[in-house]
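Table 4 source record.
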Amino acid sequence: MKILTLNCGSSSAKYLVYDWEQRKALARGIVERITIGNSFIRQSVPDREEFKKKKDCPTHKEAIELILETIIDPQNGVLKDIKEISAVGHRVVHGGEKFTHSVKIDEEAIKTFKELSDLAPLHNPPNILGIESAMKILPDVPHIAVMDTAFHQSMPEYVYIYPVPYEWYEKYGVRRYGFHGTSHLYVSKRAAVLLKKSPENTNLITCHIGNGVSFTAIKNGVSYDQSMGFTPLEGLVMGTRSGDIDPAIVGFISTKEGLRAREVVGILNKKSGIFGITGKYTDRRDVLKAMDGGDKRAKLAFEIEAYRVKKYIGAYSAALGRVDAVVFTAGAGEKDWRLREEALLGLENIGIILDRERNKNAIFGKEMRISADNSPVKVFVIPTDEEIVFIEDVVAIIEGRYDIHTRFKYSFEDKDYK
């Protein structure tokens, strides 16, 4: 059984081709800088040099087509025919309260995902595009949706209910949902292994820092609080999203600029965050380069983001009471040692002691501890692997043995997992 997973983010599309019988990845890849310009695909295949190809992808449609072309390419692909794929697992960011776990996709599911697109305007549309493109090419295989929001269904009511008229929740489902669930699930299970503790006895702060950014307070192995809320707009500073702001700003700017509220929210989603501060960058690599070159707004963007990271870690430490470890993951979380250093220094009073050399020399792609030996709270960099969560959910659903994560044992929870 060969399975394809598609994980379409706001500016990227990750994929995995996996051979379930052999329990090995045939190919992993990513299309980066979708919609941004200068987009390209990178594919890694065991025992081969990395394949890279530049191709402009103004939308996710072109990105999906590029992925499928690449995996069946006679020279660089891993399949002779796209029909070798037995099932496809798709990331879906927002499942609302209608979907609280991974599900087999049908027309009704797609309709619901489209209805929820307003809640995740940067994500559900590309997720849906990936689903529809793949289903058109592979109409006879099962397609499974893996929900970003499912992992966070364990949040208590007093955490997910907003202090707004309760009728808004009853009528419209206005509540905190939380996102990046598969990433937080994976790294939390791996952190428990590294700590040599069972997940149900583990308290963590997991920090997913990519173009989108979300932190999760994990209490006794389950999601307790999450920085993203009703939509993926709430929370920390992101590539193009503002994160937390005073909601009165929406009405104020609407009046001053003659814009509708929806238009202002669009700006908060697509033209704010790091891009809003710098005026031109969304990629942290570009920010660091500009900052080192004397760009004051790039430096300001870096400082604002690092401060928000520090503040959220402090808040979640208070919420959890006991923290076993802080985990950094995703693009910038794994690569940007300067951001981690700026955010973590000065947190010794809450038990976090950073080893600056370990942090600076952390090897990308490897699980690393970057805290000092005497740090009461451990700090790890753990590469996320959302795709393996997709694979195991897809297979479990096909085989009829799927269950929620507290009653389901993933392969990566094994102490010998590599």
